[in-house]
Fold this sequence. Notes:
4 helices; 36% strand; disordered C terminus
Amino acid sequence: xxxxxxxxxxxxxxxxxxxxxxxxxxxxxxxxxxxxxxxxxxxxxxxxxxxxxxxxxxxxxxxxxxxxxxxxxxxxxxxxxxxxxxxxxxxxxxxxxxxxxxxxxxxxxxxxxxxxxxxxxxxxxxxxxxxxxxxxxxxxxxxxxxxxxxxxxxxxxxxxxxxxxxxxxxxxxxxxxxxxxxxxxxxxxxxxxxxxxxxxxxxxxxxxxxxxxxxxxxxxxxxxxxxxxxxxxxxxxxxxxxxxxxxxxxxxxxxxxxxxxxxxxxxxxxxxxxxxxxxxxxxxxxxxxxxxxxxxxxxxxxxxxxxxxxxxxxxxxxxxxxxxxxxxxxxxxxxxxxxxxxxxxxxxxxxxxxxxxxxxxxxxxxxxxxxxxxxxxxxxxxxxxxxxxxxxxxxxxxxxxxxxxxxxxxxxxxxxx
Length: 417
């Protein structure tokens, strides 16, 4: 700690150091299986048999539970009876169609006989062997036979339409029967995948009701050896994450142990809770021995950047503000040259050094990454006052009056990388 002789103000100081820095993103999330399946039901009824429990290993197609099928069996029988009745109606309609066709044949025979008779009588009328009225009667009978033929032909059309209607009814009844059989099959709740039951939401004897959304009966995790942490990342940090970055996390169940993983995905879907926007980063890891269980809370730490052997200053030095001390001006061409010499993303900051007279002097500096405690100081040989910013140099980290009361300090500027 140093004291300025001019204004009796004490300064807390620290050294510019050289070392390694790593920028990290901290978040929390839940341990989940990579793939888990929710098993529900599409029919309503009472659970008659419950065949699995928590932690049961199941195979695809294995029976998990049985809903009482009695009601559905009756529906199948009723639908089958309707199909049989519809088939009988088809046979009746077909018989009627055959009868109508036979009537057409008889009407055709009657018409042919009437025409022959009319021809004979017309010949006799011409020879004056019979009266003209007899010939007229024969021609009238021909006309009557023609109309009778048309009538029975129409009846054939009706009979054929009835056959098609009966056949359509059979198809409809078959569809109803198929639906009844499907509903009966759905009373058997089976596993769609190989896995482990991690949740069971029903009990034997419980009544489940399906609606627009199938009720949740079981949750099956396909593989508990390959799991992931779904971490909530603040919107200010999500831009620093990318797939493939290494991550580590801890869980309360194993204090002092760190588990390693890797970011598999940064999901673009945002979650807004109380105006706080977060994104989900999926951290995959190998759950050897099945030690970590679904639902555990994980504290995740992702290293987003690493700098080796760089100058670094305490973050407290960036918060200091001394009234009346303005930063030394810099030539524009020197500033531009300093930026061109480094491809690193940087921000501007202000630090204070003591001049040869022991008075604080402000300098604008370029800053790199931070680990929350120290911040990288970017200095190029062409930077103004570069000779001042070196390892071992003293920077002011705070001030206080001679009475010990702290002086004002501005908050740490938010740095974006």
